[in-house]
Amino acid sequence: MPTQEEIFAELGIPGAMAPNNMSSVSPISADSLGNDSTMEHLWAMKAMEHAEIYFNLLCAVDPRLLKLTPKDDLIYTAFRKEFPDFNIAKLDEKELKSNEAKQKWRPFCMQFEKEIEDYSFATLVRIDGSNEYSEENSILVTRIQFFCIEIARNREGLNDLIRTTFKPKPRTKKTA
């Protein structure tokens, strides 16, 4: 279980202290955080930062050459075997989040628990793969679902037009 210090460092705020004089080296669980809006905001900022970096990569590099993880081949093969007809061009939220979909996705995702670091972290993915991230064109999924969708989009050519349609956006250094 990560320490508070590790969580804050992952969120881009190393050296931050947890509220209520909690020790920065004691392990914490999600349950102990409750519905802390500050923590939710920090995780959302981290997910958006990841999305911005990934989209800039798509704008700058041939997506077919991108390797998102050392296990791309395994992820892609398993994904297309389990979800051969999954529409990656334009996502349908029901195919990811309905009760029926969750029953299929949950065991699929769990097989990557030891293979992919942070496989269950919340990550933004574009709903319409031909367009950029925006509030209307983003959905929150697990990191392994993001990898499944984006590795498939890259390999199947659905991200090819991103580089010619969009340009990378300069990033500004955020201060905490």
TrEMBL record:
<dbReference type="InterPro" id="IPR008476">
    <property type="entry name" value="PBDC1_metazoa/fungi"/>
</dbReference>
<protein>
    <submittedName>
        <fullName>Polysaccharide biosynthesis domain containing protein 1</fullName>
    </submittedName>
</protein>
<dbReference type="Pfam" id="PF04669">
    <property type="entry name" value="PBDC1"/>
</dbReference>
<dbReference type="GO" id="GO:0005737">
    <property type="term" value="C:cytoplasm"/>
</dbReference>
<dbReference type="InterPro" id="IPR021148">
    <property type="entry name" value="Polysacc_synth_dom"/>
</dbReference>
<dbReference type="InterPro" id="IPR023139">
    <property type="entry name" value="PBDC1-like_dom_sf"/>
</dbReference>
<feature type="domain" description="Polysaccharide biosynthesis">
    <location>
        <begin position="39"/>
        <end position="162"/>
    </location>
</feature>
